[in-house]
Amino acid sequence: EAAAPSAMQAADAQQSACSYPELRVNRDLLDSKFEGYKLALEQPGIVELKLPRPVDNPQLTERQYSFDHLKAYGVQNHLYLDPWDLDCAYYLDSEWNLMRIRTVTDSCPDPPRPLLTLPNAADRRLLSGRCQPSMAFVDETAACVADGCGRLFLVDTGERGSCGPDESNIDNKDWEACATFETEPSLLVYARRYSATNQLHCLLMRVCESSADANKSTNDDKSSDGFRCVLDWFTYQSLGSPSSHGNYQQIRRLTLESSCVPNYACFDAECRHLLLECDRPFEFVDKDDKNTSKTTAPSSGNGETEETAKADDDEQKRRSTRQVGGNSVSMASESAPSPYTWSQSQEDGISVFIPLPTGVGKADIEVTNTGVALRVAIHGRPVLDGPLYEVWDKDACTWTVEPHSECRLLELHLLGKRSSETPWPCLVTNDARGAELPDAATAAAAAVVAGASSGDLYNAQELEDCDLPEAGGDGDGGLETGALVWIDGEAKRVVALTALDSTQWLFATRVTPSEPPYVCLRRDVDGLLWRPDFSGGDASSIWQHVTTFHAFGYVRASKTDAKFVSCAPSFGYAAICDCYRHVYVYHSPRPADTVLRNRQSGRVIAERSTQQVVSLATQDALIGFGCCDSRILVLTERAIYLIRVGPGSD
Question: Which residues form a coiled coil (predicted)?
């Protein structure tokens, strides 16, 4: 009889099923001759509307002092746009009334109208340490509202976005809370009702203290002051007709934990996958286990077995792995670190990664490829020297020095295809010290492996300040390797992981109601917008490059006081909102009204891009922000501002 698979074998099987899709840039959407943004001197039209009551904006308490608390609770957007009707914006006031502001282009918005008062608001909003109320639209007829004190409401909104400009249908109907669910005090991050299964999926986030007796995973060494971010994925099954909103039953709850707050969290269109952008891996937590045993996704293979004889072996295997954005990477033992790592691919050839000590420059590196043998020396001392496993074209060899989150790497690439489909068992025949890495996320993996022994960080002399990603929340100024992660909720494992390396996160935006939010990442100086789509089942193309905001990555890095970032649903502009007063709008290129020429080259400029700097007449903090095609909405505790940014506003 065959023996049952061990925990390590099960972890390896899970990891092997994970794919590593790339971010493939559509070069037709890039512009190497972008002329920059021209400052528009005219101020756009601004309309100020005073609110009848202040916005509910609870302050952090003395126990909510960590960076995770600040990121999760302190910079949340208090303004909610309706993806099905962008003429409507919503907020919750200090008495927990859900207020709607309906705006029409080129006109003053109507006064805020209350639609719903959360139950027991007078008592529950006085609770200490509560989160702010939050909401999310699940479809065109319903929304979810979390009171921040442990209750989640499903609200019947009626048909939205179909009433026309006169609002004759929508203004006479109040919203109704038709179902109530008990949860922990949390923020509602995302919610969606999938009509094919008649299920409601809700994602809630909270920051709580780490349990003192909880088993620590390999990534817990950088937890933020003993706090962890917790994501709860609730699934509710409707017991009625698809058009009804009541009589829901909870059928599943998945809980994930991490030592960081994600920048991005949502479901895919079919609510089968959880999408995350995070600096450190999330782990599933078994709520039925009183000891909160955890399974990393994909697993690092450090789970305990019932056999005492295997405990030491499992611990040794656990120590020989380290997480890269949720992916386990094998490392050499601490007593004998690998001098280099390498990977191979039938299509892309061979890649070699060598960690560099601090102070080593390109002039100190010697690389020699004869086609038969490969030699790499630093300060004249060989790091890698020996005959290649197979003969390679000596002219098809490139190398460069690249900074990564753990250390600087010498990246050497043997370009082309292997002469045979059989993988190489080693890089050079006389040296087996090098560790072979998977064929995906290799640069990030090599940096983590090297950083485990060298500890080198970025060489600040080679970078500008605006090129450095934001420091992690642990307060040590360390740089993290982020990743875009797809997690299968049924299998409880990562099915796709894209390591971002040094790519900087910019923002996420909801473009269409039926799709998850798009993500914008920096590439060189540009901001590239990516559309997530897993419907085709092809993991290699789940991130699609849809548009480019030229030079936006550079201008975003220069705005040190930026609080909110977003773009128009039609991609006509991207905007940055400061903590106080200022909004910066960067319009995409449009045909020039007059003939323009470059002063130096004389080249005719057919398109121009403009920048608008908007100064609001308020000293209050900006706590809400939303972008439509023709206007921007900015919320303070006492007022809301409408900024006209459509064609002709500049």
Answer: none
